[in-house]
Design goal:
alpha/beta; 5-stranded mixed sheet
Protein backbone atom coordinates (compact mmCIF):
# COMPACT_ATOMS: atom_id res chain seq x y z
CA UNK A 1 0.00 0.00 0.00
CA UNK A 2 1.32 3.43 -0.98
CA UNK A 3 2.11 5.63 2.03
CA UNK A 4 -0.18 8.64 2.14
CA UNK A 5 1.30 12.12 2.62
CA UNK A 6 0.42 14.22 5.64
CA UNK A 7 -3.24 15.31 5.59
CA UNK A 8 -2.31 18.53 7.36
CA UNK A 9 0.36 19.14 4.74
CA UNK A 10 -2.13 18.54 1.94
CA UNK A 11 -4.51 21.02 3.55
CA UNK A 12 -1.70 23.58 3.72
CA UNK A 13 -0.83 23.06 0.05
CA UNK A 14 -4.46 23.26 -1.07
CA UNK A 15 -5.11 26.45 0.90
CA UNK A 16 -1.92 28.13 -0.35
CA UNK A 17 -2.56 27.12 -3.97
CA UNK A 18 -6.22 28.15 -3.85
CA UNK A 19 -5.63 31.52 -2.19
CA UNK A 20 -2.35 32.19 -3.98
CA UNK A 21 -0.59 33.10 -0.75
CA UNK A 22 1.16 31.34 2.12
CA UNK A 23 0.03 34.19 4.39
CA UNK A 24 -3.63 33.78 3.39
CA UNK A 25 -3.35 30.02 3.87
CA UNK A 26 -1.83 30.55 7.30
CA UNK A 27 -4.73 32.82 8.31
CA UNK A 28 -7.27 30.28 7.05
CA UNK A 29 -5.62 27.40 8.92
CA UNK A 30 -4.81 29.46 12.04
CA UNK A 31 -1.08 28.72 11.88
CA UNK A 32 1.98 30.75 10.89
CA UNK A 33 3.17 31.26 7.32
CA UNK A 34 6.41 29.52 8.27
CA UNK A 35 4.40 26.50 9.42
CA UNK A 36 2.52 26.45 6.09
CA UNK A 37 5.82 26.49 4.22
CA UNK A 38 7.24 23.66 6.33
CA UNK A 39 4.11 21.52 5.93
CA UNK A 40 4.27 21.95 2.16
CA UNK A 41 7.97 21.03 2.09
CA UNK A 42 7.13 17.86 4.01
CA UNK A 43 4.48 16.93 1.42
CA UNK A 44 6.94 17.64 -1.41
CA UNK A 45 9.48 15.32 0.22
CA UNK A 46 6.86 12.60 0.74
CA UNK A 47 5.63 12.84 -2.87
CA UNK A 48 9.06 13.32 -4.41
CA UNK A 49 7.66 16.27 -6.40
CA UNK A 50 8.15 20.01 -6.17
CA UNK A 51 4.75 21.71 -5.91
CA UNK A 52 5.84 25.35 -5.76
CA UNK A 53 8.61 27.37 -7.37
CA UNK A 54 10.00 29.66 -4.67
CA UNK A 55 11.27 32.77 -6.42
CA UNK A 56 12.22 35.98 -4.57
CA UNK A 57 9.89 35.24 -1.66
CA UNK A 58 7.09 34.37 -4.09
CA UNK A 59 5.57 30.92 -4.49
CA UNK A 60 4.31 29.88 -7.92
CA UNK A 61 2.70 26.52 -8.66
CA UNK A 62 4.71 24.03 -10.67
CA UNK A 63 3.03 21.90 -13.33
CA UNK A 64 2.73 19.13 -10.74
CA UNK A 65 1.04 21.53 -8.34
CA UNK A 66 -1.39 22.77 -11.01
CA UNK A 67 -2.32 19.18 -11.87
CA UNK A 68 -2.78 18.21 -8.24
CA UNK A 69 -4.88 21.17 -7.01
CA UNK A 70 -8.39 20.52 -8.47
CA UNK A 71 -8.39 16.81 -7.57
CA UNK A 72 -7.12 17.50 -4.07
CA UNK A 73 -9.70 20.27 -3.53
CA UNK A 74 -12.51 17.89 -4.46
CA UNK A 75 -11.06 15.17 -2.20
CA UNK A 76 -10.82 17.50 0.80
CA UNK A 77 -14.35 18.73 0.18
CA UNK A 78 -15.57 15.12 0.16
CA UNK A 79 -13.67 14.37 3.37
CA UNK A 80 -15.38 17.38 4.95
CA UNK A 81 -18.79 16.04 3.88
CA UNK A 82 -18.01 12.63 5.38
CA UNK A 83 -16.89 14.25 8.62
CA UNK A 84 -20.13 16.25 8.86
CA UNK A 85 -22.19 13.12 8.25
CA UNK A 86 -20.32 11.09 10.87
CA UNK A 87 -20.52 13.88 13.42
CA UNK A 88 -24.30 13.96 13.05
CA UNK A 89 -24.59 17.34 11.32
CA UNK A 90 -27.42 17.50 8.81
CA UNK A 91 -26.10 17.05 5.28
CA UNK A 92 -26.23 20.22 3.19
CA UNK A 93 -25.03 19.95 -0.40
CA UNK A 94 -22.68 22.68 -1.58
CA UNK A 95 -23.07 24.37 -4.95
CA UNK A 96 -20.83 26.93 -6.61
CA UNK A 97 -22.95 28.72 -9.21
CA UNK A 98 -21.40 31.17 -11.68
CA UNK A 99 -23.53 33.52 -13.81
CA UNK A 100 -23.04 36.87 -15.56
CA UNK A 101 -22.90 39.80 -13.09
CA UNK A 102 -26.28 41.23 -14.18
CA UNK A 103 -27.92 37.88 -13.51
CA UNK A 104 -26.31 37.52 -10.07
CA UNK A 105 -27.37 41.04 -9.02
CA UNK A 106 -31.06 40.49 -9.48
CA UNK A 107 -32.53 37.83 -11.68
CA UNK A 108 -31.08 34.69 -10.08
CA UNK A 109 -30.69 36.02 -6.55
CA UNK A 110 -34.41 36.83 -6.48
CA UNK A 111 -35.30 33.27 -7.53
CA UNK A 112 -32.95 31.16 -5.38
CA UNK A 113 -35.47 31.00 -2.54
CA UNK A 114 -37.70 29.00 -4.88
CA UNK A 115 -35.00 26.41 -5.44
CA UNK A 116 -34.29 26.08 -1.71
CA UNK A 117 -38.01 25.79 -0.95
CA UNK A 118 -38.50 22.99 -3.48
CA UNK A 119 -35.20 21.11 -3.06
CA UNK A 120 -34.10 21.77 0.52
CA UNK A 121 -31.34 23.80 2.13
CA UNK A 122 -27.97 23.97 0.43
CA UNK A 123 -24.71 25.86 0.90
CA UNK A 124 -24.75 27.95 -2.27
CA UNK A 125 -21.97 30.23 -3.44
CA UNK A 126 -23.45 32.59 -6.04
CA UNK A 127 -20.77 34.25 -8.17
CA UNK A 128 -21.24 37.04 -10.70
CA UNK A 129 -18.40 36.44 -13.18
CA UNK A 130 -17.39 37.68 -16.60
CA UNK A 131 -16.04 35.14 -19.04
CA UNK A 132 -13.73 33.27 -18.98
CA UNK A 133 -14.37 31.49 -15.67
CA UNK A 134 -11.59 29.37 -14.03
CA UNK A 135 -13.72 26.28 -13.35
CA UNK A 136 -11.17 24.15 -11.53
CA UNK A 137 -9.45 26.91 -9.56
CA UNK A 138 -12.77 28.24 -8.23
CA UNK A 139 -14.45 24.78 -8.07
CA UNK A 140 -17.37 26.07 -10.14
CA UNK A 141 -20.14 23.45 -10.44
CA UNK A 142 -22.45 25.22 -12.91
CA UNK A 143 -21.85 28.14 -15.26
CA UNK A 144 -24.62 29.97 -17.10
CA UNK A 145 -23.23 32.15 -19.86
CA UNK A 146 -24.25 34.08 -22.93
CA UNK A 147 -22.75 32.08 -25.77
CA UNK A 148 -20.86 28.75 -25.87
CA UNK A 149 -17.55 29.78 -24.33
CA UNK A 150 -16.42 26.48 -22.80
CA UNK A 151 -15.93 23.78 -25.40
CA UNK A 152 -13.53 21.93 -23.07
CA UNK A 153 -16.44 21.14 -20.72
CA UNK A 154 -19.88 19.66 -21.50
CA UNK A 155 -22.00 22.63 -22.64
CA UNK A 156 -25.64 22.78 -23.75
CA UNK A 157 -27.76 25.51 -25.30
CA UNK A 158 -30.79 26.04 -23.09
CA UNK A 159 -32.63 29.14 -24.35
CA UNK A 160 -32.77 31.74 -27.11
CA UNK A 161 -33.61 35.25 -26.10
CA UNK A 162 -34.33 38.61 -27.72
CA UNK A 163 -34.20 42.28 -26.75
CA UNK A 164 -37.38 44.33 -26.35
CA UNK A 165 -37.82 48.12 -26.13
CA UNK A 166 -39.27 48.71 -22.67
CA UNK A 167 -39.95 51.74 -20.49
CA UNK A 168 -41.88 52.84 -17.44
CA UNK A 169 -45.65 53.21 -17.99
CA UNK A 170 -45.46 56.96 -17.42
CA UNK A 171 -43.02 57.29 -20.31
CA UNK A 172 -44.94 55.16 -22.80
CA UNK A 173 -45.47 57.01 -26.06
CA UNK A 174 -48.94 57.63 -27.46
CA UNK A 175 -47.50 56.50 -30.79
CA UNK A 176 -45.90 53.24 -29.66
CA UNK A 177 -44.00 52.70 -32.93
CA UNK A 178 -42.22 56.05 -32.92
CA UNK A 179 -39.49 56.17 -30.32
CA UNK A 180 -37.39 58.89 -31.92
CA UNK A 181 -38.78 61.50 -29.53
CA UNK A 182 -38.16 59.50 -26.35
CA UNK A 183 -34.91 59.37 -24.35
CA UNK A 184 -33.02 56.18 -25.11
CA UNK A 185 -30.92 54.02 -22.79
CA UNK A 186 -27.94 52.29 -24.38
CA UNK A 187 -26.22 49.10 -23.18
CA UNK A 188 -22.54 48.46 -23.91
CA UNK A 189 -20.97 45.31 -22.51
CA UNK A 190 -17.49 46.74 -23.06
CA UNK A 191 -14.51 45.80 -25.28
CA UNK A 192 -14.19 42.26 -23.89
CA UNK A 193 -17.91 41.41 -23.89
CA UNK A 194 -20.17 40.21 -26.67
CA UNK A 195 -21.74 42.76 -28.97
CA UNK A 196 -25.06 43.94 -27.55
CA UNK A 197 -27.83 45.02 -29.99
CA UNK A 198 -27.74 48.76 -30.52
CA UNK A 199 -30.58 51.17 -30.99
CA UNK A 200 -29.34 51.68 -34.57
CA UNK A 201 -29.86 47.92 -35.11
CA UNK A 202 -33.38 48.22 -33.72
CA UNK A 203 -34.39 51.21 -35.85
CA UNK A 204 -33.04 49.51 -38.99
CA UNK A 205 -34.98 46.31 -38.17
CA UNK A 206 -38.17 48.30 -37.63
CA UNK A 207 -37.75 50.04 -40.98
CA UNK A 208 -37.43 53.54 -39.55
CA UNK A 209 -34.68 56.11 -39.72
CA UNK A 210 -32.78 56.39 -36.42
CA UNK A 211 -31.23 59.77 -37.02
CA UNK A 212 -29.19 61.19 -34.17
CA UNK A 213 -31.58 59.74 -31.57
CA UNK A 214 -29.79 56.39 -31.82
CA UNK A 215 -26.62 57.97 -30.41
CA UNK A 216 -28.04 60.16 -27.63
CA UNK A 217 -29.20 59.32 -24.12
CA UNK A 218 -28.00 57.41 -21.09
CA UNK A 219 -25.55 54.52 -21.33
CA UNK A 220 -24.91 51.58 -18.98
CA UNK A 221 -22.29 48.83 -19.10
CA UNK A 222 -24.57 46.14 -17.68
CA UNK A 223 -28.00 44.81 -18.63
CA UNK A 224 -29.21 45.10 -15.05
CA UNK A 225 -28.23 48.77 -14.78
CA UNK A 226 -29.97 49.61 -18.06
CA UNK A 227 -33.12 47.85 -16.86
CA UNK A 228 -33.09 49.75 -13.55
CA UNK A 229 -32.75 53.05 -15.44
CA UNK A 230 -35.79 52.15 -17.53
CA UNK A 231 -37.83 51.20 -14.46
CA UNK A 232 -36.90 54.58 -12.96
CA UNK A 233 -38.52 56.34 -15.92
CA UNK A 234 -35.31 57.72 -17.40
CA UNK A 235 -35.76 56.30 -20.88
CA UNK A 236 -36.44 53.35 -23.15
CA UNK A 237 -34.04 50.42 -22.89
CA UNK A 238 -33.42 47.44 -25.12
CA UNK A 239 -33.73 44.71 -22.49
CA UNK A 240 -33.31 40.97 -22.73
CA UNK A 241 -36.54 39.10 -22.21
CA UNK A 242 -35.02 36.98 -19.45
CA UNK A 243 -34.45 40.12 -17.39
CA UNK A 244 -37.47 42.27 -18.19
CA UNK A 245 -40.25 39.65 -18.26
CA UNK A 246 -40.99 39.86 -14.52
CA UNK A 247 -41.06 43.67 -14.55
CA UNK A 248 -43.50 43.56 -17.48
CA UNK A 249 -45.69 41.05 -15.64
CA UNK A 250 -45.65 43.26 -12.52
CA UNK A 251 -46.51 46.41 -14.47
CA UNK A 252 -43.22 48.16 -13.68
CA UNK A 253 -42.44 48.25 -17.40
CA UNK A 254 -44.40 48.24 -20.63
CA UNK A 255 -43.44 47.38 -24.19
CA UNK A 256 -42.64 50.68 -25.91
CA UNK A 257 -42.89 49.12 -29.39
CA UNK A 258 -43.68 45.74 -30.95
CA UNK A 259 -40.41 45.14 -32.81
CA UNK A 260 -37.86 42.91 -31.07
CA UNK A 261 -34.44 41.58 -32.04
CA UNK A 262 -33.23 38.05 -31.47
CA UNK A 263 -29.84 37.85 -29.78
CA UNK A 264 -26.95 36.48 -31.80
CA UNK A 265 -26.07 33.75 -29.32
CA UNK A 266 -28.03 31.45 -26.99
CA UNK A 267 -27.76 31.13 -23.22
CA UNK A 268 -25.60 28.11 -22.46
CA UNK A 269 -25.11 25.92 -19.40
CA UNK A 270 -21.71 24.40 -18.67
CA UNK A 271 -21.20 21.67 -16.06
CA UNK A 272 -17.73 20.09 -15.64
CA UNK A 273 -17.66 16.30 -15.77
CA UNK A 274 -16.20 16.14 -12.25
CA UNK A 275 -19.51 17.21 -10.72
CA UNK A 276 -22.13 16.31 -13.35
CA UNK A 277 -23.31 13.20 -11.47
CA UNK A 278 -23.94 14.95 -8.17
CA UNK A 279 -27.62 14.97 -7.25
CA UNK A 280 -27.57 18.61 -6.15
CA UNK A 281 -25.98 19.70 -9.44
CA UNK A 282 -28.52 17.75 -11.50
CA UNK A 283 -31.40 19.22 -9.48
CA UNK A 284 -30.13 22.77 -9.84
CA UNK A 285 -29.55 22.31 -13.57
CA UNK A 286 -33.14 21.14 -14.10
CA UNK A 287 -34.54 24.00 -12.02
CA UNK A 288 -32.37 26.67 -13.69
CA UNK A 289 -33.20 25.52 -17.22
CA UNK A 290 -36.91 25.68 -16.39
CA UNK A 291 -36.59 29.18 -14.90
CA UNK A 292 -34.68 30.49 -17.93
CA UNK A 293 -37.16 29.04 -20.43
CA UNK A 294 -40.13 30.31 -18.44
CA UNK A 295 -38.68 33.83 -18.45
CA UNK A 296 -37.84 34.04 -22.16
CA UNK A 297 -41.23 32.52 -22.98
CA UNK A 298 -43.26 34.83 -20.75
CA UNK A 299 -46.61 35.91 -22.30
CA UNK A 300 -45.79 39.45 -21.16
CA UNK A 301 -43.11 39.62 -23.86
CA UNK A 302 -45.82 39.38 -26.54
CA UNK A 303 -45.82 37.45 -29.80
CA UNK A 304 -44.46 40.10 -32.17
CA UNK A 305 -42.13 38.75 -34.82
CA UNK A 306 -38.45 38.90 -33.98
CA UNK A 307 -35.70 39.73 -36.42
CA UNK A 308 -32.19 38.39 -36.33
CA UNK A 309 -29.29 40.80 -36.29
Amino acid sequence: MVALPSLRGLQAFEAAARTGSFAAAAEELSISAAAVSQLIRTVEEQLGRQLFHRINRRAVLTEAGVEMLPRLSMALREIGSVARDVSGDAFRPRLVISVPPSMAMGWLSERLAGFVESHGAADISLRGDDDPVPFDHELVDIRLSYGPHYREHPTEEIARDAVYPVCAPTLASTNSENLAGLPLIHTDWGPTGASFPSWRNWFEASGSEPGRAAQRGLSANSSRAALDLAISGLGVALAQGIYCAQALEDGKLVRAAAQSLELRQPYCLTIPERCARRDAVAAFREWLVEECRRAVGSPALGVAAQRRL
